[in-house]
Amino acid sequence: MAFKKLLASLGAGGASVETVLTEVNVVPGGVVQGEVRIQGGSVNQDIQGLSVGLQAKVEVESGDEEYKQNIEFTKVRLGDAFELQAGAVHAVPFGLEIPWETPITMIDGQALRGMNIGVTTELAIARAVDSGDLDPINVHPMPAQKAILDAFIRLGFRFKSADMERGLIRGTRQRLPFYQEIEFHSPQQYRGLNEVELSFVADEHAMDVVLEMDKKPGLFSEGSDTFRSFQVGLHDYHGTDWAAYLNQWLSEVGSKRNWF
Is there a single domain that holds both residue 147 and residue 133? Predict the structure, then answer.
């Protein structure tokens, strides 16, 4: 499925830009491919720069304030400067790598509400820069991530919400300036437990899985028994019954606190 975007013309008789994504469904560590097509206007123009990147809309906490911020977390320049002839069409194919830490936006074909991630296109002509709207992409979980998510579903957890927050999770392999939290409602058998929050922080070899109950705003309580972080290999996750693993941890914490 191709997804198109048209940037506004730059100046009277100026060039216009259309971005076409070959496929909007991707996974972390994959590649989103497409083509940028620049249509010349009525005059020749010097194209000084063309780039594509990935952008996310992230929650930011600052004191007592919360607001949304667009963060571009990868960017690739496409080619060198050139002169675009009047009326000519200049097509530039691209492949943009999806960072391993990129938050997922889809679970079992369903979009996660509030997840805004997409491709941006930027064209520079004569010191003017035209940045277009976001071209959304659908980021599906890698198989290792899906194994953990499926374990929660098997235990009866229900998806509540997801968000992306600026900040760092200590003790993980995180490199991006933000992370994702996926929240699940607890099933009845874990009475006393309202929800569990899940974060993935991956690289090309493995991922840190961060779980927390009773999260205090803005803090990961690493010294608490309601916090757990463990590593899962991207290629050797098959040998573990993750539903049993999660149930054991939840049961241990619940029995200590007389929740269950």
Answer: no
- The count of C-alpha atoms lying within 13 angstroms of the C-alpha of 259, restricted to the half-sphere facing its C-beta, is 22
Q: Which domain, by its residues, includes 113?
A: 3-139
Q: pLDDT tens for residues 120-164?
A: 999 888 666 666 668 999 999 999 999 999 999 999 999 999 999
Structure tokens at 225: 């028994």
Q: Is the pLDDT confidence value at 5 over 80?
A: no
The domain boundary residue, chosen from 94, 113, 139: 139
Do 131 and 22 have their domain in common? Answer: yes
Q: How far apart are the first and last CA of the chain?
A: 48
Q: What is the pTM of this model?
A: 0.87
The residue out of 113, 139, 165 marking a domain boundary is 139
Domain shared by 202 and 127, yes or no: no
Within this chain, do residues 135 and 7 fall inside the same structural domain, yes or no? Answer: yes
